Amino acid sequence: MQNSPQSPIIEASKLTKQFGAFTAVDAISFEVERGEIFGFLGANGAGKTTAMRMLTGLSRPTSGQARVAGIDVAAHPEKVKQRIGYMSQKFSLYEDLTVMENIRFYGGIYGLPRKQARQAGSQLIEQLGMEAFARKQVSGIPLGWRQKLSFSIALLHQPDVVFLDEPTGGVDPVTRRQFWEMIYQAAETGTTVFVTTHYMDEAEYCGRVSIMVDGQIAALDTPDRLKSEFQAANMHEVFLQLTRPKP
């Protein structure tokens, strides 16, 4: 079953992940609309990466349910993987392959015919302005370029949803701004962007944000509404209020 254009592209209902006696994700429920830029925030250990791994079919939930693009993630993880793109915080490209070799390799992984992958690769390199890097090993190009390349490859097969785990970590402010311009362009074409970030100023760029605290969703709304609700000047202040230890 595929969901209609009107139905949420991501649906989580009481999604839970336990590791022994420890509950990493505690019965979270939320929806993400098609074409939305959805920020998924939280401190280290809050459960956001574990939740993302369940949504992408990389980890099976202990209980609860998640649907992505109308597909039950636990029941059909491989089908879900065909409909999504994923960019890991740890940078998922092969550094000993050239830029073009990486593009063709991932094109094959995503099921693109060889000719289509080659054409898509040439277009991608031209769009990014990476002609000078096309035959260079990924290990030899600057981090900012690698991050933009990784994101573009995650979109190579035109997925319904792209999951980005701390995509701008370690890059300079100019590259971060350019990266967000690419995110907006992807959303304008209808691709849903699900992004985790620890940069609170980047939370302001999202249509809505969810803030995870101790495995639970402590707040979920637009940045403007959250700032109003918490009487905060910016999202950093909202985050501090939600994560401040209780007396």
Automatic annotation (TrEMBL):
Record protein name field: ABC transporter ATP-binding protein
PANTHER family named in the record: ABC TRANSPORTER G FAMILY MEMBER 20 ISOFORM X1, ATP-BINDING CASSETTE, SUB-FAMILY H, MEMBER 1
Entry GO MF terms: ATP binding; ATP hydrolysis activity
InterPro entries: AAA+_ATPase (IPR003593), ABC_transporter-like_ATP-bd (IPR003439), P-loop_NTPase (IPR027417)
One matching Pfam family: ABC_tran
Superkingdom assignment: Bacteria
The entry's keywords: ATP-binding, Nucleotide-binding
Source organism: Phaeodactylibacter luteus
Presence of keyword Nucleotide-binding: yes
Occurrences of domain ABC transporter (ranges): 10-239
